[in-house]
Design goal:
The protein is of the alpha+beta class. The chain is built from 17 helices and 14 strands. It has a five-stranded mixed sheet with strand order 3-2-1-4-7, with helices on both faces. Strands 8-11-12-13 form a four-stranded antiparallel sheet, with no helix packed on it. Strand 5 (187-189) and strand 6 (196-197) form a beta hairpin. Helix 13 (388-400) packs across helix 15. The protein is elongated, with a radius of gyration of 45 Å. The termini are far apart. Pfam families: Mu-transpos_C_2, rve. GO terms for molecular function: nucleic acid binding. It comes from Maledivibacter halophilus.
């Protein structure tokens, strides 16, 4: 009615004429024209749909990516919907269109990014001539679209890393980032915001200086270039091709890469990948390491109280602060690297043989690795603090026992904690007067209170070269005030 009145009025009919033609009141025509003049939008009167009570359920199921037929079946059987399938189909189509995701074009600078993935290609002969399940590994430079492909028979970490190295050699350099699918070979936990990288792949990426970036789960647009690349090599090279040996496949694939894949006009860029790579991208790649990555095996060990871990019946030191901790070992042909929470804490040359120790003294606390001279000086100063007789006692012990002086002096210093410096000084003076330089002598003097007894100057002291074992018994009696032996 609104549209008809406006159309007739625009054609020059007056209000009275319009009212007669439409058989309605002139006032109604006047009111509608006034509302149109004021800019009021003409709206269709809403009509209730048979699907209205079920729309919330339809939305949930559509987000689960169920088909319109499946949604129709579910709401009919489970919720009593009595309308037609076409009604559901039209509504689901409109709903998905209105909620479709918008994606930006992911542009890359030259040398900035490659994308990698595997594609299953069925069974082909392996190098031994046995039919085995096979995959094609693909790496594509996101800027030039130059692609490298290689046939593999597993997706293990070592294979994955070796394919990367072969691709880098093919390109003649290393990109800044490698965008990977959430492969078990590279990613242990599919979390885009905090990925737990497979330890070996992480070490490999650091060695070559690129940043690995995992794609988001169920987001094919993150890796659209490699998705298309894998599909292309499977359909254009492998599909319908049956060769007799692995060597024939390998040679044919390399020729296909050179003469077809990288020499064609690319469907998206409308340029030839090989030419774009040579002209714009090759020089932007990082240089390749002259020595290939040293692949190793990983294992864990617990750090013992002696600051060592055991591997293959040999022992390797670890900083003492990691005692009791489980650390990770990367074992290669020549080296053993030890990590704590992804941080390298020790490196050792791998020991040949059994029962051997590789020890870095810096892994011990400072007091455990002092030189003999440092220890002698430290203990001498402590005995000097007690007094001159204690210092003389220390020097005589050192002269007599060059290799076993530490324990008696340490014992005397422990006695000082109990009896005090003054008592130890007097005890050393008495022991020296009787020619004894034994810890047990000092201990007996202190415990029996003999340090207060006067020294009998009439007693003949033995020479410094004599040992206590040759001293007359009478001297011991005077030393310890023993009762007369009967």
């Amino acid at each position: 009615m609104y549209t008809t009145i406006k159309t007739l009025f625009d054609k020059g009919y007056n209000k009275t004429q319009i009212a007669k033609m439409l058989e309605i009141d002139r006032g109604t025509v006047r009111n509608i024209l006034k509302r149109i003049e004021n800019g009021e939008e003409i709206k269709r009167k809403s009509v209730e749909s048979i699907l209205d009570p079920y729309k919330e359920i339809v939305h949930i199921k559509a987000k689960q990516e169920l088909s319109a037929m499946r949604i129709f079946q579910d709401i009919s059987e489970e919720h009593g919907y009595t309308g037609s399938y076409d009604t559901v189909k039209r509504y689901v189509k409109r709903y998905k269109q209105s909620n479709a995701k918008v994606y930006m074009v992911n542009s890359s600078l030259p040398g900035e990014e490659v994308q990698v993935d595997f594609g299953y290609i069925g069974k082909i002969p392996n190098p031994m001539g046995v039919l085995k399940k096979a995959w094609v590994f693909c790496m594509i430079l996101s800027y030039s679209r130059l692609m490298y492909c290689e046939i593999v028979f597993n997706q293990e970490v070592k294979t994955f890393i070796k394919c990367h190295e072969n691709a880098f050699k093919y390109f003649g350099g290393v990109p800044k980032t490698v965008k990977i699918d959430n492969l078990k070979a590279a990613i242990l936990e599919a979390n885009f915001y905090d990925p737990v990288y497979q330890r070996e792949y992480e070490a490999f990426s650091k060695y070559y200086g690129f940043l690995p970036i995992p794609c988001r789960v169920r987001t094919p647009t993150d890796k659209a270039k490699i998705e298309s690349g894998v599909k292309y090599v499977k359909n254009n090279f492998f599909k319908g091709r049956s060769l007799k040996s692995f060597e024939e496949y390998e040679k044919a694939l390399l020729g296909w890469l050179e003469n077809i894949c990288n020499s064609r006009v690319h469907g998206t860029t409308k340029q030839i990948p090989k030419e774009v790579f040579q002209d714009e991208e090759k020089e932007t790649l990082q240089s390749i390491k002259p020595i290939e990555y040293d692949f190793g095996i990983w294992t864990t060990r617990k750090v013992n109280v002696n600051c060592h871990i055991s591997y293959d019946s040999n022992f390797y030191s670890v900083p003492y602060k990691h005692i009791g901790e489980n650390v990770a070992l990367k074992v290669s042909d020549k080296l053993i690297k030890i990590y704590s929470h992804y941080e390298l804490i020790a490196t050792h040359l791998k020991i040949e043989g059994k029962g051997q120790f590789s020890t870095n003294n810096a892994h011990y606390p400072e007091y455990k690795v002092k030189t003999k001279t440092q220890l002698q000086y430290e203990y001498r100063q402590k005995m000097l603090e007690i007094g001159p007789n204690a210092l003389e006692f220390f020097q005589k012990v050192l002269e007599k026992n060059q290799n076993n002086w530490g324990k008696p002096i340490y014992g005397i210093l422990k006695l000082k904690d109990k009896f005090g410096s003054e008592v130890i000084e007097k005890a050393c003076k008495r022991a020296l007067a009787f020619g004894s330089i034994k810890y047990q002598t000092i201990k007996n003097i202190c415990e029996k209170g003999l340090y207060e007894q006067p020294v009998d100057t009439g007693v003949s002291l033995i020479s410094n070269t004599e040992t206590d074992i040759h001293r007359p018994l009478s001297e011991y009696e005077s030393l310890f005030k023993l009762k007369e032996v009967k």
